[in-house]
Predict the structure.
Amino acid sequence: MPVLNARGLLRHPLRVVAVGFGSGLLPKAPGTAGTVLAIPLVLVAADLPLWGYVSLVAVLFVFGVWVCHETTRYLGVHDHPAIVWDEVVGYMVGMIGAPVTMPVLMACFALFRVFDIFKPWPIAWLDRNTTGGFGVMIDDVMAGVYTAAVLHLWFSTGW
């Protein structure tokens, strides 16, 4: 992994977004830090109707594909750990249709990190076989889909 030029990353607005406004530059657990960044965004978007929240997440995904593509080109590394915008969007996917309460936010956080780190099928396959900004984003979006599925199963069964 090449040494990061934090100053270069923080001088360009797209790269600033890609590294989660600096959270991805932490030396330990940048993906976790990026996921934490998503929580205030979910809180701000909590009052949107479901269609509005899903639309916002879709826009952030498309924007993320562009941002992550440009940043991977700059870094010369596919899916560098400092790029955490994918974690932000993935966590937001996990919260689609979920009640925004502290226990649910924490459960979503834990589930999303587990799925993002361990990458069950097809997440690992997508991570290995897709490239560019879409490749950076799609495995985390799938981790968010898995997270949402578990959360909704939890709600429907009354765990």
Residues 6-157 form one domain. The chain has one domain: 6-157. The mean pLDDT is 93. The first helix runs from residue 6 to 9.
